[in-house]
What we know:
Shape of chain A: globular
Oligomer: heterodimer
Shape of chain B: globular
Number of helices of chain B: 0
Number of domains of chain B: 1
Number of strands of chain B: 7
Number of helices of chain A: 16
Strand content of chain A: 15-25%
Helix content of chain A: 25-40%
Strand content of chain B: over 45%
Largest sheet of chain B: 7 strands, antiparallel
Distance between the termini of chain B: 5 Å
CATH superfamily of the domain at 247-350 and 359-397 in chain A: DNA polymerase, Y-family, little finger domain
Order of helices and strands of chain B: EEEEEEE
Amino acid sequence: xxxxxxxxxxxxxxxxxxxxxxxxxxxxxxxxxxxxxxxxxxxxxxxxxxxxxxxxxxxxxxxxxxxxxxxxxxxxxxxxxxxxxxxxxxxxxxxxxxxxxxxxxxxxxxxxxxxxxxxxxxxxxxxxxxxxxxxxxxxxxxxxxxxxxxxxxxxxxxxxxxxxxxxxxxxxxxxxxxxxxxxxxxxxxxxxxxxxxxxxxxxxxxxxxxxxxxxxxxxxxxxxxxxxxxxxxxxxxxxxxxxxxxxxxxxxxxxxxxxxxxxxxxxxxxxxxxxxxxxxxxxxxxxxxxxxxxxxxxxxxxxxxxxxxxxxxxxxxxxxxxxxxxxxxxxxxxxxxxxxxxxxxxxxxxxxxxxxxxxxxxxxxxxxxxxxxxxxxxxxxxxxxxxxxxxxxxxxxxxxxxxxxxxxxxxxxxxxxxxxxxxxxxx
Amino acid sequence: xxxxxxxxxxxxxxxxxxxxxxxxxxxxxxxxxxxxxxxxxxxxxxxxxxxxxxxxxxxxxxxxxxxxxxxxxxx
Lengths: 427, 75
């Protein structure tokens, strides 16, 4: 059955919101950038004027200022972005109950139920584009197609403030000449590999025998072949269908480089505390801990270990991570960022195999104590109570990572999408 | 420019707000004689979005925005 899917993408979202809210910014090249003092000084988004100077997302502020000396940088305002994102979703929700978010600024909308043809869907897309501009004051570009992958490609073709229709009649003309790297899941490594076999465009990819792609890329090759031919069958998920949490983690680029075990222990404890609080909030315990370390040379690695018992106790998580750290790092360079995460989650009510030889009472007491801390923080704020350890280095210890914004990158392949894609393609 | 203002209003049984008067910063009050349109809209001039009331004040039409919980006019 053919579907009609829109992909709506806010144009340079952070920068657009900043410029909309402050009219004085509009005539200038503007970039939203992290705080250079806290060493998050990279460009997160830029407006059209800054784009003309060649300012790129992800580069450092000083690099951007070399290209564009008059660049105005503003701090991110996540509360406003969340507000605009929610207002946008409210509008989409008037046309369909199937609205799937892909980050804050992108959404897929399945409008099969409210439209008859792709041309209908295109008209609806024009209405949404107009309403967003009129009611929110920022612009979107929309791709219209019969699957999610082409809809996403479509929203990149013409922008800002435009609608692009990709139909079964025109996709070979519109999509196939595009470089293969425009396709979802063709990253740098895949692109380089494809290049070796002379696959430059999405069209080349579509016409490569699927058996060859499978031999080179495995399952992923079959998926890419389906993507390039518009055979992506993945459904647009309702917000309530979105998959349960599979891992809980927290990472940070520290305000200063970490130079010894003590610094690292402090940071790990702080991250573990917020991770365990979030686990308890979700009513979960974790069976595996992961530690990822990035040094000042931007070299990074991840190591993981299993817990003896599923846990959401701060000290157990931090002890496991500290052990991973000691076993795997020899301090050739200082450390710039650390991430603590946990996975293999089970519910708190999951029955647990007890051991005759371990005393479980101290663990129960630790859990109760942390629950009490959560309660105090809920009632009186994060800073109402805390570990004395964190007072040793206020710059690091007094950050409240759980309260700071947490916006996670999203993967397209969550919830077994790959199988649903492959299941939908002719073999 | 975005100018926040005080608004005198009545709320009916259904919880719908009816702005009656705009109170300017110098204390002058402007009677709203009628409201012809209420909808969500963005004001590029003021740099804000909210529920926009198209108000008839004296001989003129003016936009009054409700940006929960504050009110502003674009002047």
